[in-house]
Specification:
Layout lengths: L1 E3 L2 E3 L17 H15 L8 H22 L10 E5 L11 E5 L6 H11 L5 H5 L15 E2 L18 E2 L7 H18 L1 H18 L3 E4 L5 H17 L1 H4 L6 E5 L3 E2 L5 E4 L4 H9 L1 H21 L4 E2 L10 H19 L16 E5 L6 E2 L5 E4 L4 H39 L4 E4 L5 H13 L9 E5 L3 E2 L5 E4 L5
Helix pairs in contact: 6-7, 10-11, 12-13
């Protein structure tokens, strides 16, 4: 699995009959077809460019979900017809060009994959050689589920897109899946107990040595990788004690990018070499300067939008302070240009302080989030943003009210589930809203036959057992 922040990407090895008469594509075939695509859009290739990395991560999630739906002969209408991807540039100081990959609604797997490759100007030679059988007049429904990844994957267990879907009769239900996988989960977890103890001691040593306020790991690669990061940081502390004194009383996070987050945390990209870490640490004061500017930029935008609250998305990846100030400035400028030509609509209240807006990168969405926040990309024209807010004031208010009433219920149910099911931990994917989580937890509490004792459970959209033994289950599981 590859998890960045709380975002988890399923494992690869897509196997399924996407249309009744189309031949099966094996794991090996899919891996080979998509190898050139992975090698130009993999988020880890954009460690120096967090905005571009975030775009590719989000697009890969949507593409994966779309293909899963096609497997079940459904089309996700919410998926855009085009997905933005940045392609790796051979120049280290260049984030690469953006392409828009078409999302085919076709049930023909070869057609879907071919469009992906062609949009990135990648070879389709191997795909073209895969024979295709004629379609049959009648389609039979096939039940699929999620199990472990084949060893043919083109990347290590840290990251791949597509879920390995196998026809396993017992795995149609949560109880059946648990019976087949619970022992594997506990074995994997127990096998890492010694390593976790070593990591705990390393953490304590590093925190004490650098006088950190806290030390966190938010790019959920396997624990061996976390240990390597801790050892690298400890080595730097021995070699450059004066430089690393800048970390004193800070929260340090091993994350998906190197920089200062909007919370003021020091973020170190887990894929960077020590030299890059040192360059950043020596320049922390310059990055802190951006952080100090944020309140002024947010206040200016708030005043222009009639005292609307400038928020952060409830569940969003970390953002660099420097990039965020640029995003705020762009939106402020475009709204000033709008007001130079016309006034806000008469339907707007004089005070928008009960509403909240989040400004994101240029590739971000224009939407009302499940929590009731307006989400807007920094490049959104003033007129379009004003029209969007106008048309969605009531929707934003209703969603915010629902979220505020359900988040407390979710917290209470979370505590009850951990105790009742005797879980080691219980977390969820960011895309699982409080409403969905509540339904999931209420049903879990009603089932007395489920055996999760001692497990780390992660609520998401699929079944899987991670390398560290974490048990992933869909929020809408069936008994």
């Amino acid at each position: 699995m590859y998890r960045c922040g709380q975002h988890v990407f399923p494992k690869s090895g897509y196997k399924g009959n996407l249309s009744g008469g189309l031949r099966f594509l094996s794991n090996s075939e899919i891996a080979t077809v998509l190898r050139p695509f992975y090698f130009v859009v993999h988020p880890d290739l954009f460690g120096r460019f967090p905005d571009q990395r975030a775009v590719n991560e989000e697009s890969l999630k949507l593409l994966s979900a779309h293909l899963e739906a096609l497997n079940k002969r459904r089309v996700l209408q919410s998926t855009p017809t085009m997905l933005p991807f940045y392609l790796r540039s051979p120049q280290t100081n260049n984030p690469g060009k953006m392409v828009r990959v078409p999302v085919e609604r076709s049930a023909d797997a070869k057609r879907v994959l071919k469009k992906i490759l062609q949009s990135c100007e990648l070879s389709t030679e191997y795909l073209d050689k895969i024979p295709q059988m004629p379609e049959k007049p009648e389609l039979k429904r096939v039940n699929y589920n999620f199990t472990q990844q084949d060893p043919e994957d083109i990347f290590s267990d840290e990251y791949v897109i597509f879920q390995n879907i196998n026809k396993v009769k017992d795995d149609k239900t949560l109880n059946g899946w648990l019976k087949n996988n619970i022992n594997t989960a506990l074995e994997r977890k127990n096998s890492l107990l010694g390593l976790r103890e070593e990591i705990k001691k390393l953490e304590e040593r590093v925190v004490e040595r650098l006088k950190l306020k806290d030390l966190r790991y938010e790019c959920g690669w396997n624990v061996e990788h976390y240990r390597a990061c801790l050892r690298s940081l400890e080595s730097l502390a021995n070699l450059h004690p004066k430089d690393l004194s800048r970390l004193e009383n800070r929260i340090l996070v091993f994350a998906a990018f190197t920089g200062i987050s909007l919370d003021g945390h020091v973020m170190l990209f887990t894929g960077d070499v020590q030299h890059n870490w040192m360059d950043f640490i020596r320049n922390i004061p310059k990055h802190d300067a951006y952080l100090k500017k944020i309140p002024a930029y947010e206040y200016a935008l708030s005043q222009i939008l009639r005292k609307i609250k400038i928020g952060r998305r409830k569940f969003m990846p970390k953002t660099q302070a420097g990039f965020y100030t640029n995003h705020l400035r762009k939106v402020t400028t475009t709204l000033l240009d709008y007001l130079g030509r016309q006034q806000y609509p008469n339907s707007w209240p004089d005070d928008l302080s009960e509403y909240e807006i989040v400004i994101e990168s240029e590739a971000g969405p224009l939407m009302v989030s499940p929590t009731g926040q307006f989400i807007a990309p920094s490049t959104c024209p003033g007129g379009i943003l004003v029209d969007f807010i106008t048309n969605n004031l009531s929707e934003a208010r209703d969603r915010a009210t629902l979220y505020n009433s359900t988040k407390h219920v979710e917290k209470d149910l979370h505590s009850k589930c951990v105790t009742s099911l005797r879980l080691s931990s219980l977390t969820k994917d960011d895309s699982v809203t409080p409403e969905k989580m509540i339904k999931c937890l209420e049903r879990l509490l009603c089932e007395t036959k489920l055996n999760f004792v001692g497990c780390d459970v992660f609520i998401t959209h699929y079944y899987s057992v991670l390398a560290d033994g974490t048990v992933c289950i869909p929020w809408d599981w069936k008994m």
